Amino acid sequence: MENLIVYCSQPASGQMATFLMSLSQAQNVVIRPVSEIPQPDALHLQRKRVERGDLLDAIEATETHLALYGLGRLQPDAGAEQGLKFTLESLKSRLNGVNTVLGSVEKGGVDNG
Description:
mainly alpha
């Protein structure tokens, strides 16, 4: 069984000390300082940046398509319009996830809190 590694920035705080004491009683748990967190994989981050660009493009295209329904330039189709709305929400949700990953490691990135 692999060890669970917990990185902690303030082990001396009251609540954290209690948590770490309880955690240290468990098997396969290693407590380390935040300074030992491994650097993120540069290739993984680059893929996330590319994915973010693709998501932004897809969101823009979907919003444009929905706007055409709103302006009456496309024949009303409730099923297609609802599908586009669902797709838009899915894309935005995925973008939030990608931004959280990138924001947690990039200086000046989107706050993930």
